[in-house]
User: What shape does this take?
Amino acid sequence: MSLLADRTRAFDSSGIRKVFDLAAKMKDPINFSIGQPDFDVPDAVKEACIDAIRAGKNAYTVTQGLPALREKLQARIDQQYGHADRKLLVTSGTSGALSLVMWSLVDPGDEVLMFDPYFVMYPALTKLVGGVPVIIDTYPDFRLDLNKVADAITPRTKLILLNSPANPTGVVATEAEVRGLAALAKERNAILVSDEIYSSFSFDEPLASPAAYNDRTLVIDGFSKSHGMTGWRLGYVHGPAEIVETMTKLQQYTFVCAPQPVQWAGALAMDVPMDAYVADYNRKRDLIYSGLADKYEVVKPGGAFYIFPKAPRGSGTQFVTEAIENNVLIIPGTIFSRADTHFRIAFAAPDETIHRGIEVLRKLA
Assistant: This one.
C-alpha cells in the first residue's frame, strides 16, 4: 500500500517552480519566468504592516477578515455592484480563495469548465477535490467562443472559470464576451468564478467583470499583483452570501485567517495610488510587443504582465530549452495548456532585462 494519498498523483509539481529552481543555478539570467511585479511594496504599506506588528496586532483575526479591511472592501464592492446578497471574505491569498471555492462547490465527478491556455492551478485544484476539468480551446487568438462554451456545458457542469486579464496570455475579455458568458452561466445554472487578480492591469479599456451582469458570480481578487505583495498572502473573494458563508466555515478549519499585520497594511494599501506602476507596465507591454511582433506570431496582450508568443519552430518546450541555453528564462506553454506550441514571457522586469531579452529572442527567431 502506498504511503501517499491517491489525490497527490492527479498532478505533477508546478513546472514553473522547476524553472525557478533552474534560475537559481544560472549566472545573471535574462529572467522572464517570474509571474510577480518587479516593483517593491510601497513604503507606506510596509510601514503600516510594521506598525501593526510593533503595536502587538499579531494574533488571529476573525475568520471573515479584520473589520478595518473587510468593511472597506465591502463598501467598495457594494458601490460597484449594488447586490444586496453579495458578501466578502478575506483570504490567505487568491490561491486560498480558489481552494475554498473548490472545496465549497465541487463534488467528485462535477465538471469545471476552463479556457485553454489556463492558469496552472485550475486543473490541479479541480482534480484535488475529485472534479473533472473540461478544457475549452481558445487558440489561436485566445478569445472566448460562447458557442464552444454552450456545447461544453452538461448537467454535471458546476463551475466556469474565467481569468481576465489572463495568465499566461495577457488577453482581456471584451465587454461583449463577458456579458455573454455571464448570461450563459445564469441560463444553464452554472456558477461563474471570475479570477480578477490582474484587475489593476487592464491597459486599453476598463475591465469588464461578469459580476456586473450575473449576481451569482464569484469574484476573486487580492493585493499580490496590484501592490507587489505576492509573499504577503492577502486576497479576497465576494459573491452570493450562501457560498461565501460556506467558504468562511471551511476557512476556519484550514487557513484560519489571513495574517493580521498584512490585513492592516491592506486596509491602508487601498488608499495608495498605483496608477504610475500600471502606466509603467503598459509601457513595458508596448516595448516587448513591438520588439517581438515582426519576428513571432503573437497576440498583443491587453493586460496583466504576460505575453504568449508561438515558438518559431519545433515545440514550445524545445524552443524554451534553446532559449535557456542562451541564458533566457521563459516558461513552456504546455504548463498552461494541452498544446505545446507557445511560451510565456513575464515582462514584469527592468527595462534593461527586457531589452536584453528582446535582442536574444530576435536572434533565436
